[in-house]
Amino acid sequence: MAVDSYDFWLFDLDGTLVDAEWSYTRDVFDRVGDRLGRPFSDREAEVLWHGLGGARDDQLREWNIPPTEFWPVFHAEEDPQLRAEATYLHDDAAELIRSLHARDRPVGLVTHCQAFLTGPVLEHLDIRDWFDTVVCCTEELGWKPDPAPVRHAIRELGVEGEGTGVLAGDGANDVGAAWNAGLDSIHVERHDPAFRGQCVLGDYRITTFRDLGQ
């Protein structure tokens, strides 16, 4: 494909454009495990952090962890400033977005990362102005693969019913949200598929955004 194939672009955040240092992730899950009385292995922490098993709530239930107990504890143990300082930007993602800006393409963000974390991350990396809209999923708005957050972002971009769009993300929920909203999808696989334990099918499957034609 060529970047010029689409009139507007939407992106997931964590695992797609940015990632957190493993030491931060491990520390959060250690503290969450202490509070829940249930330790998390390295694999379990990675599966939940990156959503490698699909819907995180389904994964939690499979492990007999009630989502209503897990998420309040998890968010309470996240420190926005420490999270921001531990987060780094993928070079290939930066290159693509700069290329989109040069082409004057609208660019939006649709993320499961909560607003109290997303804001500090974008500010710390100095990339908030890269996005014409930032949509953080909530219980009220919906969670990917629900198309509602994606459609909200499209309205915010002012491109509803105009041109063709694509959503790029690192998980099955991103692909599902794109398709449910009538967009094409790009799956960027930043993990070994064998470790993920499943193959994610998107309209385009890449391991780096440099795989896309410019």
Nutshell version of this structure?
It comes from Halogranum rubrum. The chain has 214 residues and is α/β, with parallel strands linked by helices. It is built from 10 helices and 8 strands.
Please describe what this structure looks like.
- It is a single chain.
- The protein is of the alpha/beta class.
- The chain has two domains: about 140 residues, Rossmann fold (3-Layer(aba) Sandwich), CATH 3.40.50; about 60 residues.
- Helix content is about 45%, strand content about 15%.
- It contains ten helices and eight strands.
- Strand 4, helix 7 and strand 5 form a beta-alpha-beta unit.
- The relative contact order is 0.19.
- GO terms for molecular function: phosphoglycolate phosphatase activity.
- Pfam families: Hydrolase (PF00702).
- This is Phosphoglycolate phosphatase.
- InterPro entries: HAD-like_hydrolase_sf, HAD-like_sf, HAD_sf, PGP-like_dom2.
Question: Which keywords apply here?
Answer:
10 helices; two-stranded antiparallel ribbon; Rossmann fold; 214 residues; HAD_sf; single chain; 2 domains; Phosphoglycolate phosphatase; alpha/beta; HAD-like_hydrolase_sf
